[in-house]
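Support request, priority: normal
Reporter: lab tech (M.K.)
Component: structure prediction queue

Hi team, I submitted a job for Atp-dependent dna helicase from Fusarium langsethiae yesterday, and the status page still shows it as pending. I've pasted the exact input below so you can check whether something in the sequence is tripping the parser. The sequence length should be 1219 residues. Please let me know if I need to resubmit or if it's stuck on your end.
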Amino acid sequence: MDHHLSQAQLKFYDPETRLNVAELQDYLTPLRLSYIRYVWYDFEFPAHNLAASTNPEEDYDDQLVFNRSVRQLLEVLSRIPPREAPVVGLEIFITPPKKFALRLLRNETKRSRERTEVLFGNVIPAYVELFKDWDVGISEIPAVTYFRVEPGSQSILFSPSSINRIASKMPRLSKVEWWLTDEENIDSTAETSQRTMFSRTLEIVPTSIRSFVLSYLRQPPRSAVDRPNSTVTPSTHEDILSRSFYSFTQRIGLDDFYLLARVDSTILLPQKPEHDAIWPSIRLYHLELKEHLPSGECIAQWQPGKGGYAYDQKIMDRFAIAAATCASRMPRIEELNIIHHGRTQMGICFSTRSKDEPCLEFVGQPDVPEASEEILAIWKDAVKAHGLRWDILPSSEVKTRTMTSSNKPERASFNDSVEPIQVPLSAEWGIRVPGHEMIKLIYGFTPRDMDDRWMCCTDGPDKEGNVRVRMCRSWSSMENVALIGQVPAEAYNNEKVIEREGGVISKIVWEKPQNDAYEPMDEKRAKAFAVNFSKAWMKYANAWLERVGWADHLQGFDPEAMRQLTDPVGEEEHVLQLIHDSIMRVMLQARITATRSTVGSQALFEVQRKEVDKKPRRPFDNRVEDDTWARYTAVWSKLICYIYRAEALEDDKKPGFKLTKQQGDRIDALEAMIQEHIQDPEANPLDEDEIDQLTLQLVIALLDHRLTIGEYRSAIVSGLAVLGIRKDGGWVDVMDYTPIYSAVIKVARAMVVYQSYQERQAEVARLQREKDLDEEEAEEEAASMFRIVREKVQRFMTVTSKETYAEPTPMDWIYEARTYGMYIRFNTPAGGTVDWDGDRIKYRKTRFRMSQLTEMLHALTREAREHLATLTMVDGVDQLPRIPWSVVEDDHSEDRVGYSFLSDERNHEWVKKGNDWVMNQISDTQPHGQGQARHEVWIDKERNDGKIFQARAVQSYGQAFNRFMERMFMLMYMMSQPGRVTEISGIRHRNTMNGGVRNVLAHNGMMCIVTLYHKGFRLTGQAKVIHRYLPRAVGELLAWYLWLVLPFWQQVQAIVKDAVIRSPFVWPDEVVRHPDDIGFQSWVQERKWTSDRVRRIIQRHSRRLLSVVLNISSWRQIAIAIARRYLNGAFKESTLDGDDEDDDLDDNPVDLQAGHGTHVAGMVYARDLQQGLFSTASMRDKFRAVSRQWHRLFEFHDSEEGGVMAGIRRKRVPYDTER
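Reply from support: The job had stalled in the queue. We restarted it manually and it finished. Here are the results:
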């Protein structure tokens, strides 16, 4: 294997010998292994290199050789360095044994000789199987994404169950294609055994598989009148393989399932149907039946006396009924086929791809009766379950369909009038065209009047999906340029496939120019013509693309080649790697430096300035979420990669940006220093500080660029155009692109502050050195941070001012483009994503009923109660001390540090009953010996270092603690309109010095979560106060946790970790911390409960309890849709008019008599004690009412009744009824 290749394919024809040599010569280094993309492994029996074998008997033992080879192969594969996504394909194969190569007859091959011997029974097939402890010491193989198995030999076969076991070591496997067999026509016991073992090991196949293709073959009967033995289990009357695949296909994440095997209808519908069965993610389900079923029944049976075949329609009827029942429970199904390809073809084909095309077809022989009324009735329900129309077409009307659509204009067609290109020249293009643009190309256009110089028509798509787009002169009908492209083959019958998947223009064709042509057409001019033709006549260009000018700037360049210039740094790009590392360090240090404590607030106000003569409302804020900062820095990383790589290209191979002299000098100096280090690391050690200084200077030079000719002379603006290219070759939509501009602006501001800070520090050092000043004197004499920052900001960090000397810079263009893009974003309605079918909500590919969601929330509550009982060491939460909700007190205005409702003196009588509750449970004074047993599990009497708790008990308790907290998060997050994860994960249960009043409050018999942060807080400085009340069943779990569990767990962790600072957060990183870990920023939200972890929690539990996968984004959309459907009526009929306390209010005359308006009265005068330091009591009561509507909707009944809650029970809102 050549380690210089970007990809490698390994083919092992002599596997053991070659791998042994590779191991001995140390060829299989991590670097070389990282280049592997495909492995082809050929098992040969007996083992190779017998002459050099130390144990020939073992080498003739096929089972031993197989196990030894598999272990050796998987051990090598496990050492391939994992990537972000797996990329390696694996194919295994058994070649016919060498003994069949001896004494071959004329024209006979080893393979044909083997087949003859097996067919006549001279050789009985043998299965190679893995031993019981075959995988001891073998690690998982995360690098493999594709696994293919082929049956090359007919005498030595892979045991099907062994393939399952091999696959089980590949946790990131996404696609398999297996050709397996139980080719037995002599020993039926062996057939049943192999079939059973394969079925029982199917469950260990990784759940990561998205595409499963299996051909499970069987040796056909020797005679057409023979019937194979039954493999049906007598006790259950079901085929074990069918039953196993029935469960296997219901996996979440399995998209495509293709099976050719001897199975029966129980693969779709078992003898005892499971009413809760659902296939949540299956998109393509293709079942191809063999002649015989596992029971021995024959779909088509030869009739010796009569000749021909007798067809058993009842068998196919069973499959038809089962398939209909199954299809109605497949929310994502696009195609379901049950086909018998034998001596006759019969089957059922169901498709949901198009609502305008027939969705159900029954295939059969002319003499086979049509589908029965029973079958049609059950399929009618299945069709309607997918929102499709049910009309029965006679077979005489079912013909090949042409691509037509009532809501599209007619396609341009010029019959045979187009004169094609006579002497064609062509060039590869390979650009991806989005669906809506491909449809425009295919429909073309006709000239409307004599002034229209051009016309366009398209040939195709044909059955293979080929199209030819003809761009012609309208007067002469001469073809000027032709585009050769491909769309999905299904587009021949269904154009909606094009809208969904788009197409590819693979080639461009033009006329060979004559020798005396004034401007001869060449490849570049042909492509430019096609682009301009599409923009001017096909109306491709939209306002956004016209504004940013990406297409013009990148005209004539291969989109994929341009996009690759922004790819992550490759392993051989050593200089770029060090530059990339440097820019990442610079951006991190810039973020750290751009703080009030380091540079002062005035410098931060100044760098935030967008307009020269207008001071910003707020200073620059370096605080962003970690994942947001990672996205922002990734944009700058791509820009730097693009600039460095493009600058190395020849002028005609790169877009037309030009580096200024200062920019060129900076990048040359940076590259020269790095090259010196790479060439001789010992003589020229890498000085990261100096490298970072040059990198920062380069960034500032890129920003400080006067746009004297055009914006695309700037390398940054050019790079931003390339970042607008999608992976499929189209343009990134404006709705998704504007955050890229925000990333450039945010990070640029931080780096300007950082460079200004370094400049001032250098000036202070210079003054100390040259004028012999002390540090304080030098600080006073040096230019201020504000002045240094202001000079840079006014020169190149604002929009162009009205002064006559002002000139535009890249930042001016970025501001204007972002403003225009934001205008489009906020004035363009988002596409519809939610639909309702009764009480079933549909969001994209997610579908479930409201009753299922309700049951999930109740199941989470039950599980949380069980985990809380475990944490409090009781048999059930009924044994816990009661919470007297009617007398629970909480002073919402109390801001004393450390205060919570549990520390309120008025609650002392009932709170003291739970003091040291869990510690008392593990004391040896508990009755019936329970305390003594817990005491022995928890307390380590032999330790004298003060750490009395057993490590295993602490670990087990911590796991139960995490399980409880996950369920509580789900309940608190989903039991109301969803807050942002950063809000919920940052709530505190007691007051803190910097955070102020806690977020967890008790109010009138309910627990309440109050958050003050919202999305625009750092932009506007105004936080909206949001109250979310919990239902009693959840609120008491939270109260018990804070009262009984958390103090004990904090005590345990304090002893174990020698930590004394107890976290005030409900979802902390650590419940206790050491004083050394506490800094000025300790009040900032702790980072263990990140959005990524919350996403995984929601996905895991929704998959488990709802049978669909939810995430943060989808739940936000779904929750808003639920509230709009079921809760809006209550707002209209109650006091909930208006959703913001800042709205204009009609002043109450009573308040006016007191000399102030109603809003001032609510915010300042005579405020209720329970209003605390938050908003007005009226807004709090409105939020309480909304929360209680959610509780009633999900059948959580609080102690209070009546009010606006009465009668709110999933009532359809008026406009839904009208619709």
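The radius of gyration is 36 Å. The chain has four domains: 1-219, 424-540, 563-755+809-826, 846-915+949-1205. Let us know if anything else looks off. Ticket resolved.
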